[in-house]
Structure formats: C-alpha cells, structure tokens
Amino acid sequence: MVWVQWGLKERALGNSSIWLCHQCATCTAYCPRDAKPASLMAALRDYSISHYAVPGFLGQALGDPKYLPLLFALPTLIFLAVLAWLGHLTALPEGRIVYSRFLPILYIEAIFVAAMTLSGLAALGGGVRYWQAMSRQMGRNGHGPGQALVPTLLAILRHRKFRECEAHPVGIRETYKRHLHTTHLAVFYGFLGLVVTTTSVGIGIYAFGYLTPWPLWHPVKILGNVSGLAVIGALVVFGYRRIADKEQAGKSTYSDWLFLDILLLTTLTGFLSELFRLADLPGLAYPIYFIHLDFVFFLLVYIPYSKFAHVVYRTAAMLHAASET
Amino acid sequence: MPSSVESHRGILVVGGGIAGITTAVEAAEAGYEVYIVEKNPYLGGRVAQLYKYFPKLCPPYCGLEINFQRIKKEPRVRFFTLAEVDKIEGRPGNFDVTITQRPRYVNDRCTACNACVAVCPVDRPNEFNFGMGTTKAIYLPHEMAFPMKYVIDDRACRLTECAKCVEACQYNAIDLTMQPRTFSLKVGAVVLATGWKPYDAARIDNLGFGKYPNVITNVMMERLAAPNGPTKGKILRPSDGKPVESAVFIQCAGSRDVNHLGYCSSICCLASLKEATYLRDQNPSAKAYVFYIDLRTPGTYEYFSQKVLSDQNVSIMKGKVAKIVEDPQTKQLTVEAEDILGAEKTTLTVDLVVLATGMASSLEGSKLGAGVTLDKDSFVVADASGEGIFAAGCARSPVDVATATQEGTAAALRAIETIQIAARR
C-alpha cells in the first residue's frame, strides 16, 4: 500500500507479495479506513500482467474491451481460411457428424502447436521478466528455483495457500472469500481433467489410430465430461459471488469477467458441440464447434496476457518465495 | 426525601466521576442542593483507577480526596451509590426523576474493619482491577474508597444461605435482607456526567486480547502500576509474574476504525506515553515501543510528549499493528506491523503488549429516554437534548480530566442559570 502511495512502481511490481496473495480479503475486512487493500492487490496483479507482457501491446489489448473484436478476429480468420481451403464453408460434410471431417484434427493441431509455441515463449518471457524484477527488488541469496520446484508444485496441487486463506481468522466483517478454496479447487482440477482428456485423445489418435468421436462410456470421455461439469459449476459459483457480493468483496474488473466468461463459454460450447453431435443436428453442431475452437484459441493462446497468466506469475512468485528461504 | 429540600432548587447529577463531582461541589458551594446518582458502590469513577495523571505525573487520588472533603463538608451534596436513573420527566425548574438503588447489604455502621472478608467463602473477579485478581463477595471496592464502606456483590454472594459475615460483624453493619428501592426526586436541572468505559478489547480479534495473557489494555496497565493494584504496583507479566523488560503500546486499538470506534479518544497517545514512564521508572533497562497512526498530543501536551520521547529507551513507530503471535513456550509476543515511514514490514518481539483502547460512552444501550439526545456513538448531544438537561465530561465526548472538570464547572453554571430563570417566571 505504502509503495503504491509513494509511487514506487517498480518496487511494488517487483515484489512477490502481489502474486503470493490469494485474495482472501482478510486485509479488507480489517482495514480501519475501509481502503480495500485486497482490491489494490488485485489491481496490481492486473497491472503486472500487462506490465511484464511480451510483446507489450498484447498485454494492453487483453485489458481493454475495445480490442476484443480484434482478438477474436485472429482465430476466426485463421479457422475460416482453413475451412475455405477445405471447401467446408459452402458445404458441410455429409452423413454422421464427425468433427474431424469438418476440420481435420491434424490442421487444428498444427494451428495450435504453432500458436501455443509462440504463446509459451511469450509466457516464459513474461515470467522471466517478473523473476528478474523480483531478484532486483527483493534480492537473492543465490538459490535457483530448482530445489523449490517440487514443494511449490505440491503446494499448488494441494491448494495449500487457499486453505490458509480460509483458516485465517475473520474479524467483525465478512470477507466474502471463504468459498475460494473449494471453488478454485474445482475449477483447477476440472481444467486439469480437460487437459488430460485432450492429451489422451491426441495420444489415442496418433499412437493407436483410435479415431474420434470416442464413445460416451470411454473412461477418458467420462473424465472429460465430469471435468467440464466441474469447471462450469465452479465458474457459476464464481460469477454468482462476484455479482452477489459486488461491493463488499471488492469490485470485479474487465479482466476478471473476461477470463471467467471465456473459460465458461469455452466449456459451454464444448458441451453444446457434444450435445448437437449426439442429437445429429449438423446445422447447429458445426457452427458451434467452430465457435468452440475460437474460444479455445482465445483461452489458451492469450494465456500470457489474460488473467490466465496467474498460472505463470503466481507460480513464479511462489517459486521465488520458496527459494529465498 | 426530606421536606426541607426545595425541589426546584435541586440539581440532579448523573454520575459520580470527576466531572459529576465537580458539578456537584461547584453548584452546592454556590448554594444549590445537589443529588449525585452513581451506579458504582463508590465515587470517583475512572479517575480512581488511574495511577498517575499526565502531564504532571501526580497521583489522581490527591484531587479526588480534595473533592471528597468538599462533599463531606457540604451538606447540600447528597449522593446515592449503587443507584441508576430510570426516568427523567418534566421541564426546566421542575423535573421528576425516578431512581432505583440496589442494596449494598452494608449500612452506615460499617467501620471497614475487614472481619467480614476474613470469613467470606466466595470469590469474585475484581472489577476495579479489570478482572486481574479477585475479591471476596463482601469487599471494599478499593483501599481509598469513598464512602469507606464495604459492599456485597449479590451476583456472587449466597446471602442469607451463608450469612457468615453477619456473625463476624460486631457492629451489626450487615443486613442481607436489604431490597432494591425506587424513589423519586424533584429537581430544577439535570447534568449528565455518565462518563466512559474502555472499549471492549476482545472485539479487536487480530490483537489477541483475551487469548494471550500478556496482551493487556491501557486501563489494566494503570492498575498494574498502581500501588493499590493487583501486583502492588509492580509491572509484571500476567503469564508468569516476570518483570516486564519490553513492551509495545498499540495506539488506536479499536479506535479511528470503521470496524470499531470511529473516533479518536484524544487521550490514548498521552496515556501510552505516560504508561511508558511507569515502565521506565521501574526498570532502567526496560524498553517501550509505541506503534501509532498519528501521535496526537495537542496543545502544551506536546512538551510532555517531547519529554517522554527524549528517553532513548522509548521509541515510536508509525504503523498499524496487523497481528500479534504468541510463542506458546515463552509467552513472548511478536508484533507484526507495516513501518509506514520505512516502507517495510517489521516485527518486534516483546514481553508485554498494551492496547491503547479508546473511551466508549457509558450510555451505549442506555434508555434514559425523553429529553436526552445521543449521537451515533452514544455521546450526549447537549444542544439537541431537552432544556434544562446538560452534559459534562465523557458523557459529551472523550476528553481528558482537565477538560472534564472544566465542563463540570460549566454545567454547574448552566444548571444554576436554568433554575434561576425558571424561578423568575
């Protein structure tokens, strides 16, 4: 708070605390002046994502609603171009709905591998810039992040920090954040489940030639569906709390809502694609699938610039803090 | 009441602390009948519990003694202890006041010989010492109590079921069958001098009061340092009775805080600086640290602040204490705060933490009703209250003793004015 009031921007942004904070909002509940320090921390995190973003303009773009159409235009144009080249813009594939006949998985893989490589490099760049800033502002004792890696990852998997937040004594005022541990746990493992599902499907296709769509009773399919439901459930809770607790819990920003909505719409369109396919409605199924791909692209490729970047920055902060001691 | 009392010339003073006593003696010495209604079994209020006054660091009981002498010599002052006002009705020059007095169970024949205490089988927490130590169910409120009469706490005493004290008392001073009595007075004016109570420190749940024995409040520190207190004036850690080597004073503990008292009690900074001298006077190596938001020592109190802070072992740090952690073995306390001027988080480990809790109005939750207007913090808004009803001292706002006595005198004059004007009509 003091650094920000004094304008010590680099010192505030180069501190691990801003990302070690898991927004339990206990500080806001206790603040004698009702200055809402938790909202300040959230704003700092927002700011630091665009501050460390590589390239910088993408960080700006994700934080400003006026660039939203442009950001959507990129995947849309790419996928449209591929479809046009395949001739599927004018005529949908005949017969049973098989998405890989509409847009072959190989093409999707190619687009995503290329985009994700760039995005991964950008995320790495942002993470490294933050790491360097922390080392500059907070000092280092020479330890690398290596030895802290396993305990930090375990802490993340166990959601240890969130649990600590929950256990914190709550004063006279409500923090409105007590649901965080459970809800984030659900969305976290739900999302991991979806990643595992996608990876398994990829392996299935390329290693065993086991072509999609897989039957509903298949364990991987079940995992995917359950995970998707967990994600949607958690996101509904998140969204509901953001609306219901509005002022008391601290304001929700554009980037909060963008991330929540994109993740929700990605999962929802995924389910819709599955449902329309099963209902054999090609007129609905293929366009929805197209939109689904758009959202997936937005969600994953823009990771380093959206609120999703917390995956990078929070991990970096936790690693840095763990390797200090 | 005696028929000789001229009702319209009487003044009711609610509260027998320093402000109320001042109003009473000033008005009585000017020729007016005064009735003090005090809810405690003794007069003197909060001042009686203080060890020293700032800035002169002299004993507060000295000034109280002078006032008690004035009361003793002045037949126009009558006082009722263990009494509370139920109702005030009427208009300037003609108020009807209903008062209920709880039984003391000890009459005027008491010589304070202490024979009753020796046989009493029941202990109760010592309220005068803020719960530090106990007294028997029959007790003297404190060594210098005025009136110098014992009293029975009927929440603890088994009364006639036990009656050991009745046998022990050779003066027939104990009557366990006493009942509460309700009576009314006719007065011409009313002065509310109901005073203050320490803000409930247990509500500041991040500072560990009530959880960690070595976290105490500023008023408890007064009792610890007072020769008639629970430790006979030695500042010892409550956990193990060890002399205190280091103490942190936390200012604005539950004050100027949207979650607690919204206002500044105006005296706590000076009280903490004063209490730092208690510690320093006892122990040449002891260190005191004051964590503050703003150090408020208005007017010439600035000199007092400078004097205390010229001691190298008294230091101040601008920062709000966020958290206190106790070492379960040593019971040492680690205080965590943001050092605002250094722009760093800081921690400090000490023997004792003193919370400078603020002054809350005693009228919180009161039902004095018609004619008395309270603000959102339960302080009396004199101008908005009925004509002929005045307030002095901490009933109006949190003030120091000097201001309380000035307001007490001012209220006496206003009450006299009211009576004079009503008589002329």
SSE layout:
The complex is a heterodimer of chains A (325) and B (425).
Chain A: H1 2-6, H2 9-13, H3 17-20, H4 26-30, H5 37-52, H6 56-62, H7 68-86, H8 99-102, H9 105-138, H10 146-158, H11 160-167, H12 180-208, H13 219-244, H14 246-249, H15 254-278, H16 282-301, H17 310-324
Chain B: E1 10-14, H1 18-29, E2 33-37, H2 60-73, E3 77-80, E4 83-91, E5 94-101, H3 115-119, E6 123-125, E7 134-136, E8 138-139, E9 151-152, H4 164-168, E10 181-187, E11 189-192, E12 196-198, E13 215-217, H5 218-225, E14 246-253, H6 268-282, E15 287-292, H7 301-309, E16 314-318, E17 321-326, E18 333-339, E19 344-350, E20 352-357, E21 359-361, E22 389-391, H8 401-424
Parallel strand pairs in B: 1-2, 1-11, 2-3, 11-22, 13-20, 14-15, 14-20, 15-16
Antiparallel strand pairs in B: 4-5, 5-10, 6-7, 8-9, 12-21, 17-18, 18-19
Helix pairs in contact in B: 1-2, 1-8, 5-6, 6-7
CATH architecture of the largest domain in chain B: 3-Layer(bba) Sandwich
Structural class of chain B: alpha/beta
State the CATH superfamily name of the largest domain in chain B: FAD/NAD(P)-binding domain
Q: SSE order of chain B, as H and E?
A: EHEHEEEHEEEEHEEEEHEHEHEEEEEEEH
* Average of pLDDT of chain A: 89
Helix percent of chain A reads over 70%
β-strand number of chain B: 22
Classify the fold: give the CATH topology of the largest domain in chain B: FAD/NAD(P)-binding domain
Report on this model:
The complex is a heterodimer of chains A (325) and B (425). Chain A has 325 residues and is mostly helical. Chain A has one domain. Chain A is built from 17 helices and no strands. Chain A is globular. The model of chain A has no long low-confidence stretch (mean pLDDT 89). With 425 residues, chain B is an alpha/beta fold. Chain B folds into three domains: 7-102 and 180-195 and 362-424, FAD/NAD(P)-binding domain (3-Layer(bba) Sandwich), CATH 3.50.50.60; 115-168, no CATH class; 199-358, 3-Layer(bba) Sandwich (FAD/NAD(P)-binding domain). Helices cover 22% and strands 26% of the residues of chain B. In chain B, strand 1, helix 1 (18-29) and strand 2 form a beta-alpha-beta unit. Mean pLDDT of chain B is 94; it is low at 1-7.
